[in-house]
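Q: Focus on the chain.
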Amino acid sequence: MDLSRLSDRFTVKALAEADADAVCALCAGNPLFYQYHPPFVTRESILADMAALPPGKSYEDKFYFGFFSPERLVAVMDLVLRYPDRETAFIGFFMVDIQDQGRGTGTEIIGGCAARLRELGFRRLRLGVDRGNPQSFAFWTKSGFAPAGENDHLIYMDRRL
């Protein structure tokens, strides 16, 4: 997948081990998220997330990438294509730098990703929101996602593309 086409405003590039400290700093600026999704972020947890795969998936379908303004990392996304089915892209993680929240940045990024995934033939975006996290639930609802199931820890949300 051509990551550069996911945003008209930001430079999008794959993140690697060398970027783990920048990702960790961005995530550490969002302590509310970790109240609902402990433990608090570490460099090691970022590296583990970069490598994590859902059952039955390979690295050819996993993309862990960042959205950059000219000066800095603005947002991070973990995306798995064709999961849990061929027409679905699963957002495993998405976080916007605290200084860019409340300005439409996250909504813009999700809209751009949704448009590109639709062009690629995907019909649905799916993600899990930590149960009880009102900030995350409100953001994803505003971004066009609706509850689609749940378990003890997560509310699954879908957006038709």
Summary: Residues 105-119 form the longest helix (15 residues).
